[in-house]
Specification:
This protein is of the alpha/beta class and 473 residues long. It contains 17 helices and 20 strands. The chain has helices spanning 4-25, 32-44, 46-56, 63-80, 95-107, 123-135, 152-166, 181-193, 260-276, 308-319, 335-346, 362-369, 372-378, 411-415, 427-442, 449-452, 457-470; strands at 112-120, 140-145, 170-176, 197-201, 217-218, 222-225, 229-233, 249-250, 253-257, 293-300, 323-327, 331-332, 350-356, 381-385, 389-390, 394-397, 401-405, 409-410, 417-424, 444-446. Helix 5 (95-107) runs antiparallel to helix 10. It is globular, with a radius of gyration of 23 Å. The relative contact order is 0.13. The model has no long low-confidence stretch (mean pLDDT 91).
Length: 473
């Protein structure tokens, strides 16, 4: 029988082996902020910290998925080469001349002219527009969403797809395996029986090892109808009141016509290929619209070699000269984004951050509060929107650029989620977004540094703990 002292000695040796191995290994595989948090955990509780790090410490993705994304990216770039007449060229030496090549090199898509972009900020009106487009579909309907619930909205979308399929329309529905689990359980069998192809993304359980880190998610919200209309934004396939009791969601969705529709279709086809290995035909050209809005698509996610969303958001912040407005439900920035906001405000840019007073992620809400003092002190304005759960995700830069999509300003969206956004280089689209932002601000409470610094010490401690917990990503 092994002596207790001998067991204790072996456990002590194992503890220190884990600590030293973590010190050598973790900093080389994750960001400095996350590495500090993980090393702290491992040093305090080595036997628990090591398995937790192996599960959640590095946003790894299977080699096959990375290979398929690289193959899809190459195909997307090749397909655009003969379409030079659709390429939009910035004039002069403004900020857009710097953004265009960055976005294209990161996300593969060139900017196109000839688009019509309508920003829809009414929840029911946006849903009605989508259902009407599905009802008028003649060729295909492709939907990709993070959430789909078994509720009135889910029922209507399911019925619209079944009716379209019965007319001979080719219908595909892709849903995140975790976020849309209620919708998959409620509708998948019925939809498949009606001829709709349904595919879950990043499935869990015993299959997760074929995908990647267990908490990677596809957070995109995309709809493409025929080669005619596309949707991109923050709205899921769920009732507005399904998230925060008493505070129905307020969203922002861009309905697009023009060449950008085929780019949304290419993102859908890429995700379909990553998940199934099946290649879908993408019509490379879409009729040019007289509205002539310049637009460029930005997909991001762990399958790409760089942090596309974070890099573009930071670039947009740095390029702002006069006014920068950022709207997000979840604000937990990395060091680079926080520094960019601070520098912009200290440089004299009017920086406005609009957040939701209500929230369905309490830990995230506490974590984001830990950044307020630093931001307010540097001159960033912070407003809490009252009437709804503000789930919209967008930003505007000066009078020239606007970004709308699915990405939050948090580390999860930057590092773990597959996201998509669309940048519009158009004064008219920016003016419309400014109008929406103005409506938010009219129903918001502005925070002041003096008021915020009066909060009790226990809240500051809570914020710090939440921030530390969130930094493990």
């Amino acid at each position: 029988m092994t002596e207790p002292s001998s067991i204790g000695s072996w456990l002590l040796i194992l503890d220190w082996v884990i600590r030293l191995a973590a010190l050598a290994w973790i900093p080389s595989r994750t960001t400095p902020a996350a590495a500090r948090s993980w090393l702290l955990l491992v040093f305090f509780v080595p036997l628990a910290g090591l398995p937790l790090y192996l599960l959640f410490g590095h946003p790894w993705l299977s080699r096959e998925r990375v290979r398929r994304q690289a193959e899809a990216s190459l195909l997307i770039r090749e397909e655009q080469k003969p379409l030079g007449e659709l390429r939009w060229q910035p004039e002069g030496d403004g900020a857009d001349t710097e953004m265009v090549p960055l976005v294209e090199r990161l996300g593969d898509f060139m900017p196109t002219h000839g688009n019509a972009v309508a920003l829809l900020d009414d929840y029911d009106a946006s849903l009605r527009a989508l259902l009407e487009d599905i009802a008028g579909a003649r060729d295909r309907v492709h939907l990709l969403y993070y959430l789909m619930f078994q509720d009135q909205v889910g029922d209507m979308v399911c019925e619209a797809l079944l009716q379209a399929s019965a007319r001979g329309v080719e219908c595909r529905l892709m849903l995140d395996a975790v976020g849309a689990k209620p919708g998959m359980r409620a509708y998948a069998a019925r939809l498949r029986a009606g001829g709709v192809q349904v595919q879950e993304l990043l499935p869990g359980g015993l299959r997760w090892r074929r995908s990647g880190r267990i908490d990677l998610r596809n957070h995109r919200k995309i709809a493409v109808i025929d080669n005619r209309a596309g949707y991109v934004g923050s709205q899921n396939l769920a009732d507005a009141g399904a998230f925060v009791r008493g505070y129905p969601n307020r969203e922002l969705v861009a309905r697009v016509e023009g060449p950008a529709v085929s780019h949304l279709e290419a993102v859908f086809a890429s995700d379909w290929y990553l998940e199934t290995g099946e290649r879908l035909e993408v019509i490379a050209t879409t009729p040019v619209n007289d509205a002539n809005v310049a637009a460029q698509l930005l997909p991001s996610g762990p399958a790409y070699p760089f942090s596309n969303a974070r890099d573009v958001v930071c670039a947009l912040i740095h390029l702002a000269q006069k006014k920068l407005v950022l709207t997000t439900p979840y604000f937990v920035p990395d060091d680079g984004t926080l520094s960019a906001l601070r520098i912009a405000a200290l440089s004299g840019v009017d920086v406005q951050l609009i957040l939701s007073r209500s929230n369905n992620q309490q830990l995230t809400a506490w974590a984001q509060e830990s950044y307020y003092s630093d931001l307010l002190q540097s001159g960033v304005k912070i407003a809490h929107y009252r009437p709804h759960f503000l789930h919209a995700k967008h930003l505007s830069v000066d009078d020239s650029m606007a970004l709308v999509g699915s990405m939050n300003l948090d580390i999860r969206s930057f590092a773990l989620n597959a996201e998509v956004g669309m940048i519009c280089y158009d004064a008219g689209v920016v003016a419309r977004m400014r109008q929406i932002e103005g409506e938010y601000l009219a129903e918001s409470d502005a925070l002041t540094l003096a008021e915020w610094n009066r909060r009790p010490a226990w809240k500051r401690s809570r914020e710090g703990i939440a921030r530390l917990a969130d930094s493990f990503i």
